[in-house]
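Entry 14. Structure prediction run on the chain below.
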Amino acid sequence: MSEDWAAVAKAINDRVNELGWLQRELAKRSNVSQAVVREIQHHVVERRRSPRTLESLSVALGWHPQHLDAVLHGRRPPELHEPVTDRGDTLWTRLEQLERQMSEIIDRLDALQTDVATVLKHVRPKR
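Output returned:
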């Protein structure tokens, strides 16, 4: 299915006008650079964007995290109360992956700390 970036621009512009925000406000609230917000709002550069960018903009605008992705792909935007559909690259999936990786790093550091303590015990002169 084709992507409709013009529909995304219209949805964002309508909502920003409804909220009375400036472009700068949307950029700040979404943590998306103002240059990217401008490109999307004015539909000047049509390029693939990270799903996280559209998710951040959707949430900042008070919509379901997948609202703009649905608009982009010509689907009905989900209601705010609907669950997030995991497409493998949602913010929640990424956070879960980071939590798992952090846990693995902590386990490795604990093991390394134990190994270093053991080595130091044998290397340091006894007092």
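The two ends are 74 Å apart (CA to CA).
Filed with the rest of this week's runs.
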